[in-house]
């Protein structure tokens, strides 16, 4: 973890400027009828989970360039995730991926407690073969034509629930790479029915207080069709399975220019929005850092979430899911967690009554202007003050660099050539 004196030294340097910035922003928001402290309290209470696989350098289909001091296994990963939360105060939970993160649940719980984290949704993996596995997933898992392979995939998901229960997790996320690469390779209907039957067996194994999330993705690794290709199929799955099943929206898993914020609204309407995998994309499932390409879209997604926040039972889970090829993964995840917080804070500033009135009056320019007014507001002082109040870093990335964490752990962690990249 980062030495508390390093955090205090960085904050002492930035404290006076932050106090002034917070005060002047508070005055400006006050003129708009917004109390800055109430916004800060909501931002401070907000958390986004980090994926265990995100703290390793990802790579592309061409190459992976491992950095120094990469985590060697789940316990190193939990150390890194703990640092992210220690500095940002924004990432209280970690999402595990099995079997990559398999370990004794008691040891995992103890380590998580040591670094101040809890466990978010469990992620199963039936998109690659594991050493010693009986049946291959080359041609699919939960939707495989071969019944024994489907059964193996079901049992793996049930194992994830069992391990997750021991960890205090409350959700299972299923993403499958199943699909096809050639027209005619599979019968769309029969493949989907096999998927539904197998996933229903997983659903039947859910504890009463668990949720099951299915994640759609339009292509890759299958390039002609995927069995859960879009939100329409995902919604059919959630409705078929039952009340504990919900749709997970990964921002990168759509065609370019698709209106994701509207998909979010539709899933809210159906009562089936389960959660998010936040990242950003320029061309496809790029797994770029959240908010790095299109922060306005991220804001518009949060605009829908804030709009629906008071709906009964509305409780989507939020997680980052990105792959870091050219940055220090800890820095990217801290930056992304803050981008998500920023989008949330800006969405809280939207004049909802005014927006509603402009919509009803067909005043398009005024309506979009209200969104832009919120989006143009620099909310950084709110985020920074929320961190400072928690004893976290006013500037997490500068503090992380000053602490020399990566160089320190590099001495203990030899570089690994292989390792698990995370593009899910
Ligand atoms: Mn994902």
UniProtKB/TrEMBL annotation:
Keyword match Lipid metabolism: no
Cross-referenced Pfam families: AP_endonuc_2
Ranges where the Xylose isomerase-like TIM barrel domain occurs: 96-287
Single GO term (MF): isomerase activity
Superkingdom per UniProt: Bacteria
SUPFAM superfamilies in the record: Xylose isomerase-like
Coiled coil regions in record: none
Keyword Manganese carried by entry: yes
Keywords: Isomerase, Manganese, Metal-binding
Identification of the protein by name: L-rhamnose isomerase / sugar isomerase
Protein source organism: Loktanella fryxellensis
């Amino acid at each position: 973890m980062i030495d508390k004196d390093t955090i205090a030294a960085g904050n002492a340097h930035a404290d006076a400027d932050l106090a002034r910035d917070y005060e002047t922003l508070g005055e400006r928001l006050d003129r708009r009828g917004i109390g800055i402290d109430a916004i800060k309290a909501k931002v401070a209470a907000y958390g986004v989970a980090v994926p265990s696989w995100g703290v390793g350098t990802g790579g592309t289909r061409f190459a992976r360039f491992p950095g120094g001091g990469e985590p060697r296994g789940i316990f190193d990963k939990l150390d890194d995730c703990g640092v992210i939360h220690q500095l940002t105060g924004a990432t209280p939970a970690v999402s595990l991926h099995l079997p990559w993160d398999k370990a004794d649940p008691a040891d995992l719980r103890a380590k998580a407690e040591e670094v101040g984290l809890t466990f978010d949704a469990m992620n199963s993996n039936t998109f690659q073969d594991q050493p010693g596995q009986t049946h291959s997933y080359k041609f699919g898992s939960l939707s495989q034509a071969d019944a024994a392979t489907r059964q193996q995939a079901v049992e793996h998901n049930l194992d994830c629930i069992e391990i997750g229960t021991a960890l205090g997790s409350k959700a299972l996320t299923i993403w499958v790479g199943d699909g096809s690469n050639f027209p005619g390779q599979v019968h769309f209907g029969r493949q989907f029915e096999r998927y539904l039957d197998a996933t229903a067996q997983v659903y039947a194994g859910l504890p009463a207080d668990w949720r099951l999330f299915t994640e759609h993705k339009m292509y890759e690794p299958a390039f002609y069709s995927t069995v859960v290709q879009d939100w329409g199929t995902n919604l059919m799955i959630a409705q078929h399975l039952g009340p504990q099943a919900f749709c997970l929206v990964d921002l990168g898993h759509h065609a370019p220019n698709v209106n994701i914020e509207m998909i979010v609204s539709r899933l809210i309407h159906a009562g089936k929005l389960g959660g998010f995998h936040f990242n950003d994309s320029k061309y496809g499932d790029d797994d770029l850092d959240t908010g790095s390409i299109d922060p306005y879209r991220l804001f518009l997604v949060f605009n829908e979430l804030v709009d629906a926040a008071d709906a009964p039972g509305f409780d989507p889970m939020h997680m980052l899911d990105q792959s870091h090829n050219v940055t220090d993964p800890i820095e990217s995840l801290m930056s992304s967690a803050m981008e998500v917080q920023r989008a949330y804070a800006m969405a809280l500033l939207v004049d909802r009554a005014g927006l509603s009135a402009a919509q009803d009056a067909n005043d398009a320019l005024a309506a979009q202007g209200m969104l832009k007014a919120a989006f143009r507001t620099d909310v950084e002082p709110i985020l920074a003050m929320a961190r400072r109040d928690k004893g976290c870093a006013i500037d997490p990335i500068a503090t992380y660099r000053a602490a020399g964490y990566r160089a320190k752990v590099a001495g203990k962690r030899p570089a690994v050539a292989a390792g698990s990249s995370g593009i899910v």
